Amino acid sequence: MKPTELYIVSGASRGMGAAIAQQLLRPGHLVIGISRGRSAALSTAAAELGAELEQWQLDLNQPLAAALTLQNWLEAQPAGRFSRATLINNAGVVATPGPVDGAPLEELSMALRVGLEACLLLSSAFLRATAALGRQRRILNISSGLGRRAMAGSAAYCAAKAGMDNLSRAMALDEAAKPAGAAIVSLAPGIIDTEMQAQLRGGDPALFPDQAVFANFKASGQLMSPADAAAKVLRYLAKADFGRTVLADVRDVDAG
Q: How far is residue 68's CA from residue 204's CA, in Å, rounded to a whole number?
């Protein structure tokens, strides 16, 4: 049997994660989506394309359990099943826009668990259990411009994405020291028309000074569709020199 290319996508039930998963559906690929919910549209697309899809309903607010599930599954796969493996850490959440002293503690905890701790633990499980594939492994972490510049009213999200960026840089250094380490990139995907954007532009201007900026993104047509954003992200993932630049921006997709 010809080896399969494995793609694991977190936050795959909606938004850009769902679009990424759908665009990866093709013969010779196994796509695993990790989300709390399931996407009927993904299941339908997989059936129509004759593609291999698994949707794991796991809560990334409990990242240790999710990572152990992934590690145990990977370790149970027969040797030689996969020709290459890719982990796309896409899941993220924002707390209610505003200062941290006004946000529910549960929301702040979830933002860090889903956006950063899950990324760390899934990456660790993935790297550990796919070591035999050597350089045929990639980790793509979906970051944000807000990981590289602070914004009032979004401290938890900024912290998660800044942590993701530096986590990616440190893991890349570790992998570079190995004879056949994985390639790792933290990619800012641009401004996308998702539920997260709706939450930000719906924030209280008295608590979230940049609310009008996000409202203008929508009003002026500056938002990419999830499908267009996913296409750019996957074009970056396919670059021959993927991993040469660890902190990247989707606008670099046509560069180099």
A: 39
**One-character DSSP codes across the chain:** -PPEEEEEEESTTSHHHHHHHHHH-STTEEEEEEESS--HHHHHHHHHHT-EEEEEE--TTSHHHHHHHHHHHHHHSPTTSEEEEEEEE-----PPSS-GGGS-HHHHHHHHIIIIIHHHHHHHHHHHHTGGGTTSEEEEEE--GGGTS--TT-HHHHHHHHHHHHHHHHHHHHHHTSTTPPEEEEEE---B-SHHHHHHHTS-TTT-TTHHHHHHHHHTT-PBPHHHHHHHHHHHHT-TTTTSSSEEEGGGTT--
What digits encode the pLDDT tens for the residues 176-227? 999 999 999 999 998 776 677 667 666 777 767 667 667 666 677 767 898 9
Domains and CATH numbers, the chain: 4-193+226-249 (3.40.50.720)
Inter-residue contact 245 to 183 (CB < 8 Å) = no
How many CB atoms lie under 10 A from the CB of residue 205?
12
Q: Which two tokens stand for residue 95?
A: 């707390």
Tokens representing residue 28 in the block: 């010779």
Residue 134 has a CB neighbour count (10 Å cut-off) of 13
Supply the pTM of this predicted model: 0.93
Per-10-residue mean pLDDT, the chain, length 256: 91 94 96 96 94 97 98 97 97 90 95 97 98 97 91 92 98 97 96 70 69 69 84 96 96 61
The answer to whether residues 188 and 144 touch, using CB atoms and an 8 Å cutoff, is yes
The tokens describing 91, both together, are 């899941």
